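Can't paste images in this forum, so I'm doing it all in text. The chain is below; anyone willing to post the predicted structure tokens underneath?
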Amino acid sequence: MLTVTTVNVNGLRAAGKKGFLPWLDTTSADVICLQEVRAEPDQLSAELRAPAGWYAYHAPAAAKGRAGVSVLSRREPVAVRVGFGAAEFDASGRYLEIDLPHAGTTVTVGSLYLPSGEVGTERQDEKYRFMDAFHQHLTATLDRTAGDADGHAVVCGDWNIAHQEVDLRNWRANQKSAGFLPEERAWMSRVLAPDAWRDVVRDLHPETTGPYSWWSYRGKAFDNDSGWRIDYQVATPRLAKTATTAVVERAASYDLRWSDHAPVTVSYDL
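Text version of the structure:
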């Protein structure tokens, strides 16, 4: 069994003070993908930078205090790569992947923090450029693993797009909002085209509204479960078929949250 968790920590130093470390001590995950770390490695305490029992890899953003992704693995990977070959984004702290040997196969696990965007601004244009470039990487990875009987891949992270109406509570009011724009949803549909990548959580919960993974800190969004499902594990078809469980680790109450996102955990029976 290979258990993978992804979570946007909304600042790892802040999460470390709110409950991330106790969660890390009790998780059963073999690999953890973190997004929005927002810190250089030397700004992290030793227990956050290199937790005992984990191999830790960090890809901070060139823009200080922004973005940043990390991967923690209980087993040492055979390769670690920062970025995906796009010059504009490889120093942006938005993608890191490892190749992990497991049960006679190699599993590529990527941690993705896709730009959030903002309608009518350069931030949205940047998001679209990122999406175009990253889709090329996804296509190349899919082709590579399809030709390798022992190759698998899963891209985990904050994709900042709710794909379908069931993926956010207030979808009617957000049809012109970044994260639920027609262009973004169409791009997600291309990623998840038949015989392409699989949305593992949706495959295991096809009739479920949500399960949401992000709730605004404003108002009573968390208490009312008025959330968005924007944190995904998107896997190659053969790996997706091995997924047995998918759980959003929603905090029991508002005061127990250590991020505005919840961990999304999937177990693969390879």
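DSSP finds seven helices and twelve strands in the chain. The longest strand covers residues 105-113.
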